[in-house]
Structure formats: C-alpha cells, structure tokens
Design goal:
alpha/beta; Rossmann fold; 14% strand
Length: 269
C-alpha cells in the first residue's frame, strides 16, 4: 500500500526554507518521520543511517522525499565510527555550504538488567547512543561555529533522549543510562556554546509506535505503556517529529538546554 504523502505547508508557513538539516537514524521510525517533515518545510535533508531499509516498509527515506518533490540525499553513516561521522558533516558542507540543523536520532537497544548485561553489549549501546551523539555534535559544531548566524543562530542541535532517561526502563539498563546522559550532554553543549549562538535542545519521547517488532510489541511492555500513559493513545513518530521541527526552527531561538517531553503525560503522572 503506498505510503501517504506528507502534508505540504503553505509557503508562508514553511519554517526551514533553504536550511540544511542532518538527521541520523533516518531510515525508519522517528528519524524517517522527522526527515520527511523537515523536507516538507523546505529544508535540504541529509538522511544518515547504516541502511536504507525501512523497518515499517516502503521506499527508502531519501527516495521517498525526492518523489514528494523535496530535497534529500542519503549518506551511509555509522555513528559509532568517528571517520564516518566527520565525513557526513564534511560532505554536507561541501554539498550545501553549511549545517543549520543536526538531529541526533540514531540509537540501538539491548534490553538486559544489570546481571545479564555483558560488557561488550553495554559498550555497544553507549558507543552508538551516547558517544555517537558526542561524535556528531562535535563534528557539527566545528562547522557551525565558523558559519554566519541565520535567524539568530549559527546552528541548532536536537538530541533524542527519552522518558527512560528520567525514569527506569525495566530491564533495559544500558538504554536508559545512555538517554539520561544525553540529557546532560544537551545542557552542557547549550551552555558552553550559547555565546557562539549554537542552540542545543533535546526531545524525550515516551512510548512511540514506530513499526519496530520484537520487545517493542511484547504484550507486557505494551500493557505497561498503555496503563502508564494518561493520553488515550500511544505516541506516533509524527508526534516526535513535530516537536523536533519546533526546536529546529527559529521559533525556538530563546529555548536552549531544554528537554521537551513528548510522552502523553507519562512522566507527569
């Protein structure tokens, strides 16, 4: 069944016209929805991922965006590889001239409690989820600080943290730890680089139904998510993409170092 076309805003309402946006982990789920939405708002989007395969099915993200008449290219990138991350940023600047927005969405999970977590698996989760964000931020900010400001900012970063960086993720030690650290890293970058007009914020999703299988669809996991979420449905990738769009736009110029919850009220309850 054909994937629906992302709604195109009226020209006067498009928030990112001509901006250059990099989205990691953009092949599927939240990253895919974000890349499509940013492109719909006029951005040139660099779709960065280790694969073009779409977990929920459909055309590869960059191809789909191009078919919708918008601007996107794919750059194969493993965020656990410093050389690939630096190449991603360098090639974006070579192709488009600057980096306006970086969305750090790429992550992996290996759900285990402490006594069942092998050290190699712990290191892998942290290397992608946390150190990958560090690598991408560092490589992007190197370029951003040399750019002329546009709409009061030399660059904007949106990191994907999680509600499970604030509350326990049952039997998922490494993931929750990595997401908690991203919230801190976000605040630190925001404060350190505010004088250079680098905006850095985080979005913390709750239970988002992305099309992923496995543990995400485990009946016990789903029952807990439904029971704990006050809003009368679980989240969708578009809910998170909408929050990212706000933080990536000039509407959020005086918002930096913040973590925006997109969890249907889970952490408020």
């Amino acid at each position: 069944m054909p994937e629906p076309t992302a709604a195109l805003p009226e020209p006067s309402a498009r928030r990112l016209v001509g901006k250059v946006c990099i989205v990691t982990g953009a092949a599927s789920g939240i990253g895919r929805a974000t890349a499509r939405l940013l492109a719909a708002h006029g951005a040139h989007v660099v779709v960065a991922d280790v694969t073009t395969e779409v977990v929920e099915g459909g055309r590869p993200t960059a191809e789909l965006i191009a078919a919708e008449g918008r601007s996107a290219i794919f750059q194969r990138t493993d965020v656990s590889d410093t050389a690939q991350v630096e190449a991603l940023m360098d090639q974006a600047v070579t192709r488009f001239g600057r980096i306006d927005v970086l969305v750090n969405n790429a992550c992996v999970r290996h759900a285990r409690p402490l006594l069942e977590m092998e050290e190699a698996d712990w290191q892998r989760v942290l290397d992608v989820n946390l150190t990958g964000v560090f690598r991408c931020c560092r490589a992007a900010v190197r370029h951003m600080v040399r750019q002329a400001p546009v709409d009061e900012a030399r660059g904007r970063i949106v990191n994907l943290s999680s509600q499970h960086g604030m509350i326990a993720a049952p039997e998922d030690l490494a993931y929750g730890t990595s997401k908690a650290a991203i919230a801190y890293l976000t605040r630190q970058i925001a404060v350190d680089y505010a004088p250079q007009q680098i905006v850095c914020n985080a979005v913390a999703p709750g239970k988002i139904q992305t099309g992923a299988g496995g543990r995400a669809l485990d009946p016990a996991v789903m029952e807990r998510a439904v029971r704990r979420t006050p809003w009368p449905r679980l989240g969708r990738p578009q809910d998170v993409a909408n929050a990212i769009l706000f933080l990536a736009s000039s509407e959020a110029s005086f918002v930096t170092g913040a973590q925006l919850m997109v969890d249907g009220g889970w952490t408020a309850a």
